[in-house]
């Protein structure tokens, strides 16, 4: 399904932030790895979090759910011996479960999104799991991937952090359950380092002890630990909210998003500081971000690695800023649902934005006068491209048609409902 985004000068209203995708996937996983019954309050509902629900159920977790909570009885360190898992298009879910699947004798992760997740590399994690003696069949580091695990024991492991932090997170979920103590050394640079902070936070909540070095490059993980069954509350989602905040920033607006914790460990919390630096009028108090946009924004320079899933929304805001913005240290955006530098900038250019790419940078020459619009946008199976181009469409001169916009459901199924509720002119076709 496509959406048509019609230029909308004013947005107004209140939105309850969606629940965090990254915390939901983590809480579902640690609940499944516990013996006993855990409760997760306000879990996210999206294709990615549903993928984790489905897979942990396939692996033996018992799940009961109502509107507000999910109750999970875990399988501990004994996942069911199943043959196949389908993670949809969810990168984090795949990588975390590849590690857990090494406790199973023979599991194949199928390739249901050959043009998106099917193109993403997993070599670095494959290499680390092989160090633990796990036998892995793969297609040059890509799906479909078969894991023949059984009894990995732990020990010394290295993992590259160059492409994704998810490989390290995956090892941090697995190693506490192994028979021997483990030592993990991260090689190269660690990208998306802040997200590892969320992994460590959740592990600690689940009663797991990990000794991490201050720079997050070395870990000592005692073995023979047991995940504890606990009660968790999922906080609001900054990456998805970043797109709504960017929309409010580029229009005349009076928009409040509730449930965005000021002390959150989500790096994408930086959207608030970035918009502030762009001189967008806003406040952040009592977990409410209140934007009163006046269509005026100033360019900025920003290290995007600190807020990886909000960079596309920030770039969309910069399209209308006065001056030239630069988002640097963002090379790993190339290894996400699509190449979020080349593919995204191609779509922005179609819409009329003036953008340039480097291997690890996005440069935006702002157009405060607005962009032309009036074209069809290819979503590249990427929810964040869809949300960011919707922001651009609000301030184009003619409507944008975003093809296959239903892929927004990967993280934010009700994004367009939320946008319409604050006045955005959006129509499904
Ligand atoms: O661990 C996680 O849940 C995630 C880590 C990040 O990926 P990278 O580490 O590949 O940047 C982020 O982009 C993704 O949406 C979720
Ligand atoms: C990159 C993302 O997710 P994943 O890597 O889990 O597919 C995202 O949500 O933007």
Automatic annotation (TrEMBL):
Domain Enolpyruvate transferase: 6-419
Coiled coil: none
Binding site for phosphoenolpyruvate: 21, 91, 120, 166, 340, 384, 410
UniProtKB keywords: Amino-acid biosynthesis, Aromatic amino acid biosynthesis, Cytoplasm, Transferase
Any single Pfam family the record assigns to this protein: EPSP_synthase
Subcellular location field: Cytoplasm
Cellular component terms per the entry's GO annotation: cytoplasm
EC number, UniProt record: 2.5.1.19
Entry GO MF terms: 3-phosphoshikimate 1-carboxyvinyltransferase activity
Single Gene Ontology BP annotation: chorismate biosynthetic process
Active site residues of this protein: 309 (proton acceptor)
Quaternary structure and partners: Monomer.
HAMAP family: EPSP_synth
Entry similarity comment: Belongs to the EPSP synthase family.
Function description: Catalyzes the transfer of the enolpyruvyl moiety of phosphoenolpyruvate (PEP) to the 5-hydroxyl of shikimate-3-phosphate (S3P) to produce enolpyruvyl shikimate-3-phosphate and inorganic phosphate.
Name under which the protein is recorded: 3-phosphoshikimate 1-carboxyvinyltransferase
Source lineage: Bacteria, Bacillati, Bacillota, Bacilli, Bacillales
């Amino acid at each position: 399904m496509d959406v048509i985004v019609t230029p909308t000068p004013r947005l107004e209203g209140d939105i309850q932030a969606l629940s965090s995708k990254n915390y939901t996937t983590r809480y579902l996983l640690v609940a499944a790895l516990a013996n006993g019954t855990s409760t997760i309050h306000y879990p996210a509902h999206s294709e990615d979090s549903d993928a984790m629900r489905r897979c942990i159920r396939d692996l033996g977790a018992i799940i009961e759910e109502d509107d507000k909570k999910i109750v999970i009885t875990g399988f501990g360190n004994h996942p069911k011996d199943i043959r196949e898992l389908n993670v949809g298009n969810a990168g984090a879910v795949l990588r975390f479960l590849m590690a857990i699947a090494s406790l199973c004798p023979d599991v194949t992760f199928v390739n249901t999104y050959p043009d998106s997740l099917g193109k993403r590399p997993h070599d670095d994690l494959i290499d680390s799991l092989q160090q633990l003696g796990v036998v892995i069949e793969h297609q040059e580091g890509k799906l479909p991937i078969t894991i023949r695990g059984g009894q990995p024991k732990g020990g010394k492991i290295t993992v590259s952090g160059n492409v994704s932090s998810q490989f390290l997170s995956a090892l941090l979920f697995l190693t506490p359950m192994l028979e021997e103590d483990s030592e993990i050394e991260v090689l190269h640079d660690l990208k998306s380092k802040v997200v590892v902070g969320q992994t460590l936070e959740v592990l600690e909540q689940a009663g797991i002890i990990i000794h991490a070095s201050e720079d997050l490059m070395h870990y000592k993980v005692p073995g023979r630990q047991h995940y504890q069954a606990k009660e968790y509350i999922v906080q609001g989602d900054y990456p998805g909210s970043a797109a709504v905040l960017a929309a409010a920033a580029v229009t005349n607006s009076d928009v409040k998003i509730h449930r965005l914790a000021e002390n959150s460990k989500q790096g994408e919390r930086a959207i608030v500081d970035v918009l502030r630096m762009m001189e967008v009028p806003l406040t952040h108090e009592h977990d409410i971000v209140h934007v009163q946009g006046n269509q005026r924004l100033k360019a900025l320079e920003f290290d995007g690695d600190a807020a990886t899933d909000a960079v596309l929304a920030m770039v969309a805001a910069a399209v209308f800023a006065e001056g030239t913005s630069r988002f640097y240290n963002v090379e790993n955006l190339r290894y996400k649902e699509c190449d979020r530098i080349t593919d995204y900038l191609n779509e922005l250019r179609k819409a009329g934005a003036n953008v340039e790419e480097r291997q690890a940078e996005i440069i935006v020459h702002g157009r405060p006068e607005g962009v032309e619009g009036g074209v069809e946008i290819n979503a590249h199976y990427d929810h964040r491209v869809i949300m960011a181009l919707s922001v651009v469409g609000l301030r184009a001169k003619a409507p944008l048609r975003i093809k296959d916009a239903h892929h927004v459901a990967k993280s934010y199924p009700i994004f367009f409902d939320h946008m319409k509720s604050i006045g955005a002119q959006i129509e499904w076709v």
